[in-house]
Amino acid sequence: MTGTMTDAMTAAAVETTLHPLPVVVVLVSLLAGLAIAVLGEQRQRLRTVLNLSAAVVKLALVLWIALLVAGGVVPEFRFALVPGFDLVLRADSLSVLFASLSAALWLVTTVYAIAYLQHYANRARFFGYFSICVTATMGIAMAGNLLTFFVFYELLTLATWPLVVHTGSRAALRAGRTYLQFTLGGSALFLIGLIWLYALAGPQDFIAGGSLQLLDLEAVTSMQAIFVLIAIGMGVKAALVPLHAWLPSAMVAPAPVSALLHAVAVVKAGAFGLVRLVEDVYGSALSGALGLSLALAIAASFTIVYGSVLALLQTDLKKRLAYSTVSQVSYIALGIAIGGPLATVGGMVHLVHQGVMKITMFFCAGIFATLLGVTRIVELDGLARRLPWSAAAFSVAALGMIGLPPMAGFVSKWYLGSGAVAMGQTWVVAVLVASTLLNAGYFLPLIARMWFRPAPERWTGGAQPSRWVVAGLVAPALATAGLTIAFGVLAGSTYSPLDWAIAIVREYLP
Amino acid sequence: MTIGVLVDLMLALALVGLSLRVVTGRALFRDIVLFILFGLVIALSWSRLGAPDLALAEAAIGAGLTGALMLMAYRRLVAGGAEDVAPRRRPPLLAVPVAVLTGALVALIGLAALGVERVPDAAGTIVLEELGASGLGNAVTAVLLVFRGLDTMLEMAVLLVALLGAWAVLGEVHPGRLHQVDRRTPLVGALLTTVAPVTLLIAVHLLLAGTDAPGGAFQAGAVLTGCGVLLVLTGTVRPRAAAGLATKLLVIAGLAAFVMIGASAVALGRAPMSLPGTWAVYLIETAMMLSIAVTMTLLFARARALEPERA
Amino acid sequence: MTTEALALLVFAPLVAGLVVIAAPRRAAAPVAVAALLTLPFGLWPLTLVVWRGETVQVALAGFAPPLGIVWRVDALALTMLWLTLVVVLVVSLHALTSFPPASESGQRFWPLWLILIASVHALFVSADLFNLYVTLELVTLAGVAMIAIGGKPAAMRAAMRYLLLGLMASLFYLLATALLYGQTGTLDLYQVGERLDDGALALIALALMVTGLLVKAAIVPLHVWLPAAHGKAPGPVSAVLSALVVKVALYILIRLWFWSGGAAGGDGAALLLGLLGALAIVHGSLAAITQTRLKMLVAYSTVAQLGYVMLLFPLASTAAFRAVTFHMVAHGVAKAAMFLAAANLLHALGSDRLQRLVGADQRHGVNVLAFALAGVSIMGLPPSGGFVAKWMLLEAAWRQQGWGWVAVISLGSLLAAVYVFRVVALAFAQPKGGSVRASVGARGGGRFDTTALAALLLAVLAILLGFASAPLVALIDRGLPPGMLP
Amino acid sequence: MSSAFVYVLAASAVFGVGVYGLIVADHLMRKLLSLNVMGSAVFVLILTVGGATPAGPDPVAQALILTGIVIAVAATAFALALIVRMFQETGLTSLRGRDDDD
Predict the structure, then answer these.
(1) How far is the C-alpha of C293 from the C-alpha of C278, rounded, in Å?
(2) How many domains is chain D partitioned into structurally?
(3) How far is it, in rounded angstroms, from Cα C313 to Cα C206?
(4) pTM of the model
(5) Do residues B176 and B308 share a domain?
(6) Phi and psi of A13, rounded to 5°?
(7) ω into C382 cis (within 30 of 0)
(8) Which of A421, B73, B127, C3 could form a disulfide with D80 if both were Cys (CB 3.0 to 4.6 A apart)?
(9) Rounded to whole angstroms, how far apart are CA atoms C162 and C281?
């Protein structure tokens, strides 16, 4: 399982270097977003060029950073944001994991979105905020302390809201309102937790293994309370039950937005935040000692089962996918909460794996809706005959979600399960089994309907877009489906997400 | 108890009584007249307190000008159909608590004011010691123009802003003729031919005297305003809706003189607002007097400019 | 050098105002612009000196207090002067279009505008209680006159109410000044502070003065004049009233309290002021939420935001002073942007009823964006100047275990989010009969003229302030009240 | 009992009367009269608490009052213009009722 890179990373002494790259990688999409917004609605071709080139440049920059980090360099940039507390942008190995996921999926989502929104109004605004959204995600990935994280976390809220309400319909505005109620409420608690932590321990950079120490016993309650406050702030975006209610209603947004929300940006930002909180602020040892890991594990487990059950009850395709996200994202939190090398690897690698799988499914759901007018599960019958490639991509992702080898999802679940056993938390295995059964219960019928049911005589609706548009929609789905397989099959090779996750965990748990 | 204190007591009682009537009465016209009376009683109080400068100013500005402005506004309201006598209404619910609170306020202010103990080195004492440095004989004028010239300059700005504000509020409204008085009637003719030159003389005297004796630009300006009001009321000058250059220059003269002299001191390497000599005091005071008179007359006529009536 | 600089700040706009009154119309624009462009040259030398930790003092006419008046520029005054400069320059850019200097409306607007700028400068640098009274009257009267410029009945009524309450407040202030002069024999703010004991007289005088200033600063429940006055005024006037003119009274209040022995009022009085602030935050925000007109909503937001400043009095720490000063700057910039954007939308849509905003984003996107960006700062969300201010204020409150203040500050942010997003959501909403699909020839973004540019410029500044807090905080730290340590 | 004592008490009372009128009175002109009454009271107080020098009342206090009187009359003139114009536009001489227009 271990590749050469892992060894190189642990061998080289990690050194922090002042470097503009973390800022540049954040600014690329911000500038692109502003340029797109300023250019206006009519400059369609220029906008497309800007969108794509920014995405490509960003991916290249992230790869550059990945190479630096693999070489043992930690590029960092900092300046005082508020008195006594710096804005720190630093690319450590965990940053790279999330940043490369975001950059890669942003590229494919951009392609998809350009095709999908061919006839939508206000595309300049859409792509402007779309880019700012990725800016925020990148900032979250590069954040070197909780304050910086918070800044970009809020920027993400602000940038995604216009995307959620993009169509301006009543339903969209209602969903937007729900979204804000949850996220801003959560961020108020987050901020209080942050202030409290700052008052208690001063400005703390993210450090592998955590920077906090239990100074005295009186601080125990405070530290637990701070953890809970911040975890609620993260949990809202990570859709931890009962903070998840905004996610299904946000499904009114255009498909690329859903894809982004569920796979790269919002939900993942929350999960990533939980990882940072447990691993880099408290440290998994302290989290465990304070009983916080167990609490998080229970919350995550409950979310996993509850989300799956609700997914099973949905008749609308996107709703079912949404509840599936609620369930699946909590795998990440669960892995971190269990602790120990194996489960931590499982949680971290799922950050990437869930992303590629879920984005595939949302791409496909968007294709079904656009080309055939299919939004409900009963309408999927025989769909594979009309759209075999999309159906195949969807099926691959769904099987991966269930955890079927050799897809990516299997790798995650394997590490989580064996990690739980290794830590003596066997009850987690029961959760995983239950979840897998439920996953199968709500995904397999879809696959069955698509491939084995007869097609209706005519499809209810949908547009007849040009071949280029269809290609622009299907190619991203195929690409991410391909990644789903590749990340599973090639999990053992160098530079695979799993390899990278193992390298990270070596840093944390030497 | 001396006679003086008895007079003081009577004046004080008059003040309180008049103010009560002015504030709570129902007949507006009568109460404006009572307010003018109130102003005159204040002027008397000033002279009782040994402040003739203030007595002059109060009589001319506080009572005279303010009263004239009030009466003019009242006339416009009534001409527009407003009621003079307010309908008898039940006093509003908050009257009682407000009365109680203001009662408490009065007690507090009285308590504080009576508790004041003058320090020996108060600014006023130092002014008298340093009067020589100002080159003026009247300490009040010295404070106004030399020691605290900034206040006076900004006060001219207040006056200008009030006029600009009134112009802004008036919009394009043409002021129209104020009053039909036939100035060929003997009485009015006499008034114009004698009173106008006399007020002018008084004004100039007050201005010149002000550097050493009671008087100064404010009082002179107020007296001159009286002359202007008279000209407007008799229809000798007619309000106009557009200001000409001359009017504008007169209106800004006071502030402009102050600004020019105050700022040029900086250019000459001295502290801002330093006056180069007694001539500057005369210059500023003359400009101020003209500005005050023209501005107040224009405010009285609700006009932007005045022009002689053509037969 | 500093004397000339200081004189320039007061005299340049004053002279320009006089020239605009008397000169031909076509000269108005160049004269006004020239005067405005000299202001940075006045501010810069002062900044250099204050940055070194010194205080600029200029005795007017060469007479030191108690005989004369001094202009005194410390870091607090300089901070407010910088706020004034930024707001005034950008709002003037707006006014050049919304009140063309050569037009009839411009001829009314520009002299008042220039005199207002001069008087705000004169006020911030004044260290004399009576001179502050005169400048305060000047600022108020100019403000009232500019509210009434539009000539609409509602604006007139608002101006009237503002004028009456403003004059009353000034008389309270003046009465207190008289008492203080009688007792101390000086009008100099700092000498008064040195000479005053904390007897009953001082308490009564301070109470009167604070009452007057609270009216001028529109602190709940003495705020009744503000919403209509700011809400019905022309755009640039609303902007500068909310950004600067109400702050002026708070500035004097802070000066009085921390530099001139006002704290003699004791903890009880400080707590009372803080509670009024908390009330302002809650009441102003709730009222903003229930408004049906955009500009009234923004005006009530000002009522709420002013409340945060009052929290300085009970907290009374270095951290709180930093936070509140920063807040005044951040709010000033953001609120000016918000009012300009709101006025532009009102101008474009013909009304500022909130219902009219539906779909506004499609045709007036720049103004909606400016409103939203400014809203980010008003809500105190990162990254923005408002966030830095709220962060510092929360931290200050937290360190003193002021849990109630923490709760109020957080609540205020959440309520602000409700009213800001309510507006933006309406602008994003789909008009009836419209469709999600693009209509042929629809232009995004909207017309981009200087009025929109001014709003956007201030809004972007409000955001950037969140990244450039360090120099501003460093400046504020150079002028902490006596007894506070950096 | 000195003159100053008498005038201090009177001025305090007159100030209170003015505040009462400003709040309770309905007609705008009466509110304005109340303000002027308040103002006069403040001016008397300035002089009386300003104390006396051998050469009469404190000259600084007198100068402040003179400045104050001019400011008061300027503000009054402007307020009257506003009242008259408001009356012409709305037919109202008070601030009762709602502020709303389009």
Answers:
(1) 24
(2) 1
(3) 14
(4) 0.94
(5) yes
(6) -70, 135
(7) no
(8) B73
(9) 21
Q: Which of C130, C175, C183 sits opposite D45 (nearest CB)?
A: C175
Strand pairing report for A73-82 and A85-90? antiparallel
Dihedral sign, CA of D39, D44, D45, D46?
positive
Which structural domain range is residue D73 located in? 3-90
Please indicate if any CB of chain A lies within 8 Å of the CB of C394: yes
Q: Does the pLDDT at position A9 exceed 50? A: no
Number of neighbours of residue B188 by Cβ within 10 angstroms = 17
Nearest CA in chain B to C159: B169
Q: Please indicate, yes or no, if residue D97 is contained in any of the structural domains.
A: no
**B41 shares its domain with B152:** no
**CB of C156 within 8 A of CB of C137?**
no
CA–CA min distance C307, chain D (Å): 24
| D21 within some domain | yes
**From CA C126, how far away is CA C58, in angstroms rounded?**
10
Asked if the structure places residue B12 within a domain, the reply is: yes
The reply to whether B224 falls in a domain is yes
Structure confidence at residue C440 (pLDDT): 36
Q: Identify the burial level of A138 via C-beta atoms within 10 angstroms of its C-beta, where 0-12 means exposed, 13-18 middle and 19 or more buried.
A: buried
Asked if B touches A (at least 3 Cβ pairs < 8 angstroms), the answer reads no
Say yes or no: B292 and B198 in one domain.
yes
Query: Residue D42 and residue C168: Cβ atoms within 8 Å?
Result: no
Residue B182: predicted pLDDT: 60
Of D20, D27, D71, the CB nearest to B158: D71
Find out whether the peptide bond into C101 is cis, omega within 30 degrees of 0: no
Least confident span in A9-13, A30-34, C211-215, C367-371: A9-13
Chain B environment of D5 (Cβ under 8 Å): 114
Q: C103: which residues sit within 8 A by CB, 6+ positions away?
A: none
Q: What is the 3-state secondary structure (H, E, C) of chain D?
A: CCHHHHHHHHHHHHHHHHHHHHHHCCCHHHHHHHHHHHHHHHHHHHHHHHCEECCEECHHHHHHHHHHHHHHHHHHHHHHHHHHHHHHHHCCCCCCCCCCCC
Question: Got the DSSP string for C386-443?
Answer: HHHHHHHHHHHHHHTT-HHHHHHHHHHHHHHHHHHHHHHHHHHSPPTT--SBPPTTPP
Confidence of residue B260 (pLDDT cuts 50, 70, 90): very high
What are the tokens at A290?
């304070």
Which of A86, A90, A78, A66 is CA-nearest to residue A16? A90
Of B230 and B150, which is predicted with more confidence?
B150
Domain residue extents for chain A: 4-508
Domain assignment of residue D81, yes or no: yes
CATH number at residue D11: 1.10.287.3510
Give residue B81's pLDDT: 83
Does the distance separating the beta carbons of C60 and B168 come in below 8 Å? no
CB contact under 8 A, B165 and C145: yes
**ipTM of the assembly?**
0.92
Residues B311 and B163 reside in one and the same domain: yes
Backbone angles phi, psi at A429, to 5 degrees: -60, -40
Q: Are residues C137 and D31, on separate chains, in Cβ contact within 8 Å?
A: no
Domain map of chain C by residue range? Answer: 301-311+319-432+444-486
Q: How many angstroms separate the CA atoms of A384 and A473, rounded? A: 16
Q: Is residue D96 part of a domain?
A: no
Q: Does C470 touch chain A (CB under 8 A)?
A: yes
Quote the Cα angle for A424-A428-A429, to 5°: 95
- C-alpha A159/C-alpha A171 separation (Å) is 19
Amino acid found at B28: L
Q: For residue B10, give its domain range.
A: 1-85
Percent of all residues in chain B with a pLDDT value above 90, rounded to a whole number: 45
pLDDT by residue (tens digit) across A396-421? Answer: 999 999 998 888 999 999 999 999 99
Listed residue (C10, C37, C61, C81) closest to C472, CA to CA = C81
Give CA–CA dist B256/C349, Å, rounded: 42
